[in-house]
Amino acid sequence: MPWVREHYHVASNPAETVGGGQRRGGLAAAFAGPRHPEIIGNVLSQSGYFSWDPREDQAVDEEDLEWEWIIRQYAASPKLMLRFTLTVGLFERDHEFPDSPSLLQSNRHMRDVLLAKGYPVNYTEVPGGH
Fold this sequence. Notes:
By secondary structure, the chain is α/β, with parallel strands linked by helices. It has helices spanning 2-7, 24-35, 69-76, 103-117; strands at 18-22, 42-46, 83-89, 121-126.
């Protein structure tokens, strides 16, 4: 961000800065927000992969994975000055890990945890898939 701010006219106020993405990009934005609240004040996630377990790319049996790692991080952490916009399709399903929570389920769970922590959340479910 320092390079971007030096070369482009962009906001330096975190309340005016959005981190966003789709699927793993939405997960990355939700991951970056609490690690750099001095930079990112808004998280935009489209079909965020919130069921993710950091060990899923390793040789771990699916039944040993602990789904929704990022959601547990938010539940256990103090509230920060972040705002969220989450969008997910009603027919989203994770085909890579059939026993994991669906994208729809994990986005609903993320929404519920964020609201319980007092975060501002704009949440939308759309009639479609990915």
